[in-house]
Write a structure and sequence with these properties.
- The complex is a heterodimer of chains A (370) and B (336).
- With 370 residues, chain A is of the alpha/beta class.
- Chain A folds into 2 domains: 4-98, RNA polymerase II/Efflux pump adaptor protein, barrel-sandwich hybrid domain (OB fold (Dihydrolipoamide Acetyltransferase, E2P)), CATH 2.40.50; 114-369, Alpha/Beta hydrolase fold, catalytic domain (Rossmann fold, 3-Layer(aba) Sandwich), CATH 3.40.50.1820.
- Chain A has 10 helices and 16 strands.
- Chain A has helices spanning 85-98, 181-194, 207-218, 240-248, 252-260, 271-281, 286-297, 310-314, 353-356, 358-369; strands spanning 4-8, 18-24, 31-32, 37-42, 47-51, 56-61, 68-70, 74-79, 114-118, 121-128, 135-138, 161-164, 200-205, 223-229, 318-323, 341-346.
- Chain B is built from 12 helices and 14 strands.
- In chain B, the strands form 3 sheets. A 7-stranded mixed sheet of chain B has the order 3-2-4-5-7-6-12, sandwiched between helices. In chain B, strands 9-11-10-13-14 form a 5-stranded mixed sheet, with helices on both faces.
- The radius of gyration of chain B is 20 Å and the shape is globular.
- Classes of the chains: A alpha/beta (370), B alpha/beta (336).
Chain lengths: 370, 336
């Protein structure tokens, strides 16, 4: 490991070109452990923390609060305490001399989402990484593959990671048929067939967790392991007024407070997040799709299908992650750990725990998958 | 990320998709087919700037070229609308609206009121407006304010490709007459637009940017200039909130008032001439309904009270720009 580590503006998702420094969480001279959060930055979509990948001392803060930097731009420097200041200055000068900010052109390196036909429906998906035993990421009700913005690339270091838009969601077809859980699960299985995946690690958030459980129940051979995040399908409670409000909300005023319930820190609900959600909700067919799904899966504000026995019965590794302050599906639904079942409850986090505590969740999943 | 297309393509796509969805939607206007279908012409111009290009062959018999008689074909469109069709009439330049005012103001806008609510007039009149095209006094005016004045008309002024598509689809489905204002300088503007059908509701302003110091209400092409000014002001520590009303009738007063209640300062940016404009209208509404919140006089950034000049240099001076917006924001911010 190099003694001097450059801390740079991260790239969260395809559209991020620059980020703003919100707040330094560490001061110059502070000791840093790997995994510690050093600085909070904000893209136009969401705010998050940049964490240390190495141990050392924060030696330089090169961007001030409110500064806007291009992706890859230099935020600060972490180095051992015994590295000379002159060496750090030389490294900073060398970095700045070589740094080329990404162009504003739309065409960027990196994978772009693709669309394929799966049992008569257009399904959008995005693939990061190659090889290894693949991981498939399945979003929740009203979400899309961008719910994995902070996780997708980070998990794709040594394997292919696919995220898809379920029927009725994102840029996939809006027809959801009877709106049943088995329709969603069958679509994911057919998607795996279409992209040539025999079996995979399945990660599901919220309703996506219930989809994973249904696949594990009906097609266990297709599942290598399960990662369930704030998952549906493990108990019958769910925030019915949130669901009802979300399906009905047609404007910014009604939507914004609802989206706030998804996060422990409601300031994460930016104008852009609300606008993007409204744009999705206004696509032809989305209103019907969401109402149909909600009517099937969560009638009367309860979960229709409880598969609490599936994780233990699967006989394969299962990781359950929950935000302790989840206001959509209660953390009490998390099963008891034991055997091949690991449970991680993250304090101070809400339903969108994979976004709010992305670094922590990525680390847990990384360890779990080995 | 979603696909990017231009404002002009977004309008063409909205027309194409709605014609595909609803057989009562027809397109009519001067050169809208543009010679397409005549011998030797496979696919011709499609309107004076090509907005309706390609529709003639996709929707046979439903793209109609009209004589150069606005009073005639706008009247025909209004009549067709009363009889079960959903016509989208293209009135090339808004400047020519004067010759068919009676069809719009006295007929289309009044039917519902005069016939006891029994008559619907689902006509859309698309028209180009705005300066910056070196087209001089009779092809450059910004007249959405005139239609906004007339009860019974809805007036739509999209500032970007996403809104252009969603608002045009909403316009076609609306059961009242809609004046759909397209800024010709924006036709080449690119933006992310879903391939699927979607609508943007009338009377819902977009909050284009959030900020706590000064509210800027900007319309149509002016939204882009306001964003430019706000980016520059941000570096100077002044945080602007930008509101794009998207439709001037109905007008989303609540979003504007809520913002001014928060910032206490308002700059309205409007490409129209200043008298009896959207700028003066919005300034009046805020002065009356949010008077207690105001910390400074309201600034209006508009064109001057003169016709659009033919001289390039004078036309450039005529159009409100980012520098003028920035100066107005500073005046309200520094007012004591």
């Amino acid at each position: 490991m190099s003694a001097i580590h450059m801390l740079t503006m991260p790239k969260w998702g395809l559209s991020m070109k620059k980020g703003k420094v919100n707040e330094w969480l560490k001061g110059v001279g502070d000791g840093i452990e790997p995994g510690e959060e050093i600085v909070e930055v904000e893209s136009e979509k969401i705010a998050g923390a940049v964490e240390a990948s190495v141990a050392g001392v924060l030696r330089r803060q090169l961007a001030g609060d409110e500064d806007v930097l291009p992706v890859g731009g230099l935020l600060g420097v972490v180095a051992d305490a015994d590295v000379a200041d002159s060496e750090i200055d030389a490294a900073v000068a060398a970095f700045l001399a070589d740094f080329v900010p990404p162009s504003d052109d739309e065409e960027e390196s990196g994978p772009a989402p693709e669309k394929i036909e799966v049992v008569g429906r257009r399904i959008r998906y995005l693939k990061h990484g190659d090889g290894g035993q693949p991981l498939v990421l399945i979003h929740g009700f009203g979400g899309d593959l961008n719910n994995w913005l902070f996780n997708h690339e980070a998990l794709a270091g040594d394997r292919a990671v696919y995220a898809l838009d379920l029927p009725g969601h994102g840029e996939s077809a809006k027809d959801v048929g009877d709106g049943s859980l088995s329709m969603l699960a069958d679509t994911v299985l057919a998607f795996m067939d279409a992209v040539g995946i025999d079996s995979a690690h399945l990660a599901g958030h919220s309703m996506g967790g219930a989809v994973c459980l249904d696949i594990a129940r009906r097609a266990p051979a297709r599942v290598d392991s399960l990662i369930l995040i704030g998952s549906a399908g493990l108990g019958d409670e769910i925030n019915g007024s949130y669901l009802e409000g979300f399906v009905a909300a047609g404007d910014r005023r009604s939507l914004k407070p609802l989206l706030g319930e998804l996060f422990a820190d409601t300031s994460l609900v930016t104008r852009q997040l609300v606008d993007d959600m409204l744009k999705y909700k206004r696509l032809e067919g989305v209103g019907t799709a969401l109402a149909t799904l909600a009517g099937q899966l969560f009638p009367g504000g309860r979960q229709a299908q409880v598969m609490a026995g599936v994780p233990a019965a699967l006989g394969k590794p299962v990781l359950v992650i929950w935000g302790e302050g989840d206001r959509i599906i209660p953390v009490a639904h998390a099963p008891s750990a034991g055997g091949q079942l690991r449970v991680e409850v993250l304090a101070g986090q809400g339903h969108m725990v994979q976004m709010e505590a992305a670094n922590e969740v990525n680390r847990l999943i990384g360890h779990f998958l080995g | 990320m979603a696909r990017k297309i231009t404002y002009q393509q977004a309008i063409n796509e909205a027309l194409d998709q709605e014609m595909g969805r609803d057989k009562t939607v027809i397109v009519m206007g001067e050169d809208n087919a543009g010679g397409a279908g005549s011998p030797g012409e496979d696919d011709a111009w499609g309107g004076v700037l090509g907005v309706t290009k390609g529709l003639y062959h996709k929707h046979p018999g439903r793209v109609l070229d009209t004589p150069i008689s606005e009073s005639g074909f706008i009247g025909a469109a209004v009549g067709a609308a009363c009889n079960g069709m959903r016509p989208v009439a293209e009135l090339m330049f808004v400047d020519f609206m004067g010759v068919c005012f009676d069809q719009i103001f006295n007929q289309a806008a009044k039917f519902k009121y005069m016939f006891g609510g029994k008559a619907e007039t689902p006509v859309v009149i698309r028209t180009m407006y705005g300066a910056g095209f070196r087209a001089a006094a009779q092809h450059s005016q910004c007249l959405y304010n005139i239609f906004t004045h007339i009860p019974g008309l809805k007036v739509v002024v999209p500032s970007n490709p996403y809104d252009a598509k969603g608002l045009l689809i909403q316009s076609i489905r609306d059961n009242d007459p809609v004046i759909f204002m397209e800024h010709k300088v924006l036709y080449t503007m690119e933006g992310e637009v879903p391939e699927e059908l979607y609508t943007v509701p009338f009377g819902e302003a977009a909050v284009v940017r959030e900020g706590g110091d000064v509210t800027i209400v900007a319309i149509g092409r002016m939204v882009g200039f306001a964003q430019e000014a706000a980016a520059s002001l941000q570096k100077q520590g002044i945080h602007c909130e930008i509101i794009d009303p998207r439709t001037t009738s109905p007008l989303d007063e609540d979003t504007i008032l809520e913002s001014v209640e928060n910032t206490g300062r308002l700059v309205v940016v409007d490409e129209s001439n200043p008298r009896c404009s959207m700028a003066s209208d919005i300034a009046g509404i805020v002065a009356q309904k949010a008077f207690g919140a105001l910390k400074a006089p309201i600034e209006q950034v508009t064109a001057p009270h003169v016709p659009v000049p033919f001289s390039d240099a004078l036309e450039d001076l005529y159009i409100p720009n980012a520098a003028a917006i920035e100066a107005a924001v500073k005046r309200v911010k520094e007012y004591r």
